[in-house]
Amino acid sequence: MVEVEIKSRKHANGGDKKTNNNRIWRWTVVGALIAVLLATSLSPWRYSRKFSFIRSPCRCSEGSHKYTGIVEDCCCDYETVDSVNEAVLHPLLQELVKTPFFRYFKVKLWCDCPFWPDDGMCRLRDCSVCECPENEFPEPFKRPHGLPKEDLICQEGKPEAAVDRTLDAKAFRGWAVVDNPWTKDDETDNGEMTYVNLQLNPERYTGYTGPSARRIWDAIYSENCPKYSSGESCQEKKVLYKLISGLHSSISVHIATDYLINENTNQWGANLQLMYDRVLKHPERVQNLYFTFLFVLRAVTKAATYLEQAEYDSGNHLEDLKAHSLIRQLVHNPKLQAACPLPFDEAKLWQGQSGPELKQQTQKQFRNISALMDCVGCEKCRLWGKLQVLGLGTALKILFSVDGQEGRDQPLQLQRNEVIALMNLLNRLSESLKSVTEMGSSAAMDALVLQNSGKTVSLIQRLRESWMAPW
Questions:
Q1: Dihedral pair phi/psi, residue 341, rounded to 5°
Q2: Can you tell me the distance from the alpha carbon of 37 to that of 58, in angstroms, rounded to the nearest whole number?
């Protein structure tokens, strides 16, 4: 009897030890899983980058690239575009747009919206706009005062939307005026136009959101460049949509990379989640960004002779010589010519029987898009919208309104504002591509981290519940 009792106790003690060992083992497994998941989710915050982020992500592998092969409907591949942009185009363009000639843009900031005049926002100027003193304006730049003081209302209540009108005294002295058949703006209407220093008004977040902003993009896409159907073989029908989609992507990238993170402290930085949601998680939008970049680059290289011979006179001789030198380096760059001699082949378009009709239809649609820029309710957004649409219209004019062969059509004529818009647009697109390649994997990782963080909490909760349940 005693012997049986002893055996029973030993068995019981063995069972207790086994249970304890199981619990210890399970806790060890749980702890290890939690540690791994937390390390996976939180490790990106251990690293820093050169940008200021809402959430600082990890430094991902530099060599990764999501897009490979030839850019659709173009003549260059993604890797070559990134390489040439990084080594050649981006550095040159960054210097070029800072020169006085390319720094100032002539624009009509007071306008009537031709599509929904009841909106009224287009007539309202931001009450915090800094006007230049009268003595800073050269005589030709003086313009009517516009709306009476009592009619001025703050646009959207956002000072970020205000245009800084500070101007050097000797900017832009005289230039020939030739209107662009692809755009609406009447450049002869000097009385209602003013010069803006683009360096003082960077394209970035302005707080312009909501129905007013959506209305613009809805009108552009639904009425003027609807999405082409899947399997569409007609390249002409794709061009306008892809150009506008690429421009839209570029604008979204600039908003995300220069975002007002903290309004109270005026802290600006990159919003990676916005970048991911608006652009990076949509491969087609990234692809269209590359398409638009190569399209505009082709226009610049096609107009190389004209751009090389043009006069870049801002009254600052040394800076004008620098601008001329940078233009020559850009249009005759051996690395660019070797890597991507023909970025886009415009000769393939408008060749069929319906070609002239399609071209006329596209031109009409693009003019409507140009006119829609007058309906943008944010002054600074309107400035950059007008500039980039004019730049795109200039590229269309170079590629499709001038044959380039002696004795055919009209010789190429570009007015100063078109050249300024064209080069600033190319710079904007170049910056967007650089941001996408540098921040793309980080933004994707950032979104993944948020997703994994939620999964981590959920898994920890399940593990906790299973631990509390009977074994």
A1: -65, -30
A2: 16
